[in-house]
TrEMBL record:
Organism: Acidithiobacillus marinus
PANTHER family cross-referenced by the UniProt entry: GLR1098 PROTEIN, RESTRICTION ENDONUCLEASE DOMAIN-CONTAINING PROTEIN-RELATED
Classification via SUPFAM superfamilies: Restriction endonuclease-like
Gene3D superfamilies documented for this protein: tt1808, chain A
InterPro entries: Nuclease_put_TT1808, Restrct_endonuc-II-like, Uma2
Protein name: Putative restriction endonuclease domain-containing protein
Domain Putative restriction endonuclease per the UniProt entry, residue ranges: 15-166
Transmembrane segments: none
A Pfam family matched in the record: Uma2
Amino acid sequence: MTPLGAAHPRLSVNDYLAGERDGELRHEYVAGNVYAMAGASRRHALMVTALTLLLGPEARKHDSQLFNNDMKVRIQQAGEESYYYPDLLLSCDPEDRETYFSTRPCLIIEVLSENTERIDRREKLYAYTGGLPSLQEYLLIAQDHRQLDLYRRTTDGWQHESYVEGSIHLQCLDMDLFLDDIYYDAERA
């Protein structure tokens, strides 16, 4: 993400949302600051597509809504508002029906890139796990090698699990997700 720069004053939430509706480029909003979104690589796009195809049927079975790339998540934390565009977002709450953003996702997935990994692993991890009481799982997926990092809410707080083979169980959808299925197309790109 690239900040718009010091010459730009803090933007109001309403101005940000209006700009996102009418603009051609996507931006994330963090406490009044706006950051342009970078384009995705072929591997990244193939992995997001694979995940959409894998999770989509299960989301429908659970009467949940799955979004990829273009649905924002709103976070209110420490008196500030932030809006991010996760790679995939699953909402299972029938009350979570804002037109342009989600407020109660149960699963968020980010496919890591060299430019976003630090933000996804730190800033977004903190924002998602601390600012979204509905969130049950946050999944980070490396695109240049096989590795999944799953952060899962437990009664004792957040638990981290890392996987390099086999499958993981997503509790939100009560399904197993196999690494072979996630990486199949990307490893042939």
